[in-house]
Amino acid sequence: MSSPLSHNVGEGAGGEGHPRHPNHLSATTRVNVLSALKPASGRGGKASQAFAFLLPTGLLSLALVTSHFVLLSGLLVGVGLLRSTRQQLGPLVVSLSAASGLILLGLQSGTWDYAAPLAGAGLNSLSFGLLLLALLLANGGVALVRGHPPQSDALFSLACCYLLLRLYSLGPWNLGWLLASLLLGAAVALAAAWQGAGAPSSATGAWQTAYLNGFILTGAGLGSEAGIVLAGYGLLLLPVVRLGFSAAPTPHWRYWLLCAALPLSAPFIMAWLAVAAALAGGLTLLAVSLWAAALLAALPVARLAHGQHQGQAQDEDSAAGRSAGQPHRGLHHYNILTGVGLSLATPFMLPGLLTPLAAQLQGGLTPFGSLELWPWAGLIAFNAARQPVATLPSIALIALMLILAALCWLGLRLRDRT
């Protein structure tokens, strides 16, 4: 007695009563048999993928709420082991670097708790350098140096940025640490924006993420209230940008919401915060560099919004490869609404969320730059002498950003003609 499946296979392969070896089955029959097994394996695969994501996320969340150096280090290394494979050891290297910095901090201070009065005594250049190295590696720094699209680890990038910013609660950074963070952050932002301007459209999301990570590190290196606000806003914007460039294909005009050349979009406000924070700190050259990075980063996004694509073959391959793993279209709509809300709610988010964050780290911050909410001017940035250096909106800054948008449009027109 034969089963229906074996009967159908025998007929499809060589006729009734003449079953063939599986290797001799027709292509159509093989596909039908495999497709019958696919739903069961798909459900198991989705469950394992969800578990592989939720377990490291839960462990990292537990790590970030603890203040004990040993427990925090152990959880970081555990998550690194979970997310690493023989071919991909990056998460493990990141976790070991961050854990080494924390353990060294505890050994030098003689205490193992962030809240201990003498915890800041163990902060030295080596422990700071290890935490900074962990952040750069988590953000895909090795690939960026090689000129490849940096694939940053979202979980470890957030965790390492938190660890670096929390060092301000132990005391002020010395000038060498501030300078290193500023230079590296600006270099990452400029390099990512420059390479992303001419990269294939399929890599735009990776370059935009690296560009934002550079702005976040620059904000941390400013060591001021305005810098912490910049870093905090960047951390809120990162998930919107990640999902916006990895979601299912959408009408091209929606990419304008992710473009720094569109006035009052979330990336536009991010660029304004970066320029204003640099001006408030008296770093004019840094402000010009960050404005140039924002212009370069706006070009590839504007091309996508304009319906232009570089590396069309690569885009098609990327779309085919991502089709099975893309988020639901409804989730993409929520992401768009989140981006719009993030930009419109900035004046209310500043006193309610970002300024309290800076207040928690006030013991280690410098007075060189602050951001405040004024009813008639929106956001206004002050320097150390309490002199206003930038407002949102203001005539000068609007003119500067309109120049950015005009240059972006001019670049698109020149590309059309060539």
TrEMBL record:
It comes from Candidatus Viridilinea halotolerans. Residues 1-25 are annotated as: Disordered. Keywords: Membrane, Transmembrane, Transmembrane helix. The chain crosses the membrane at residues 59-82, 89-107, 127-145, 175-194, 215-241, 253-275, 282-302, 336-358, 391-412. The lineage of its organism: Bacteria, Bacillati, Chloroflexota, Chloroflexia, Chloroflexales. It comes from the Bacteria. This is Uncharacterized protein.
